[in-house]
Amino acid sequence: MGMLLVFVVTAVDLSFKKYGSYIVEKLLDTEESMAVVVVELLECDGDRLMRLARNEFGSFVVVKALRVTQEMNRVDMFRGLVQKLMPLRHLLNAQLQSDLDGRLAELAQSQAEKQQLHLQSVEKNYNECSSSLTWHKERLRELETKISSLQEELSSCKDAAATTEEQYNAELSTANKLVDLYKESSEEWSRKAGELEGVVKALEARLIQEESEYNDRLEKEMSTNQQFVKENEDLKQKLEKLEAEIEKSRKTNELTLLPLSSFTGGADDSGTRNMIRGKPCNNSKVPTGVSGTALAASLLRDGWSLAKIYEKYQEAVDAMRHEQLGRKEAELILQRVLSELEEKAEFIQEERVMFCVRTYV
């Protein structure tokens, strides 16, 4: 409803401005005499108007007068309408002003809130920037400290590098001198190396020869030892058989046989048996009884004698001693070769020391 009233008031104002100005212009354009004539025409009666209308100029004046009258009536009507609508216009203006004030207040409040939020965000950004700036300053101080320490380390490294370079140059010059001296004495060293190589080859040939001889002797002794072990096993088997037979005959002839006297040393059968088994003989009295007699009888029946048994024992002992002597001889040979190698090594070491002394001098 308020919007409709505003539209009506606006239309009346526009109509008044349009037609009112037109009427005023027409009235101002009409001459004073014409205005007087129009007034008189309005006051005269109808007959006179008819007479004037017959005249050409009079008809024109009458038409003008009628138009002026219509325009004046229209102006009066618009003025009345405007006067009626003026209070409504003031009321609408007041409402619009109040609405405008409210909208302006809301706008101002919203602007203030936006400004407050903007200020808060700006303050937050400022705080963040300040904290970041503080952290960056601290980081910058740390980096400056590190840079200073790195510069010090760099300077110390440069000094150390210079010192090391000087040492390397000195060592390089010494190495160059050593190379020159080595080139000078290379022929002598090659000659000595050839001599040493010949000595080593001769020693290797001698060692191979000694090893082959030792292996041959060892094989012979091992074959002899195996034969002796085999014979010893045969004797053991025969001895066990004889003991079983003697034990059997002893049980049958227990009342008729008498024990023999015991005897000592290497002249009895127990000593012989101990020698056959490889056990050392003792000087204690060993009672033989029937076992010694049966053993002697069995050995005699098989063609064995105490001398033969002792001879076999001595052969085994001699073989073992010969093997031990062969081992000792091989050890002596190896020791002699080792001593010769050590002497050669000492000679080479002395030559190397002399060479180093000559090079440094």
From TrEMBL:
Gene Ontology BP terms: regulation of translation
Keyword Coiled coil: yes
Keywords, comma-separated and alphabetical: Coiled coil, Repeat, RNA-binding, Translation regulation
Keyword RNA-binding included in the entry's annotation: yes
Chain segments annotated as coiled-coil in the UniProt record: 105-167, 193-252
Domain PUM-HD: 1-112
Annotated Pumilio repeat ranges: 40-79
Molecular-function annotations in GO: RNA binding
Protein name as annotated: PUM-HD domain-containing protein
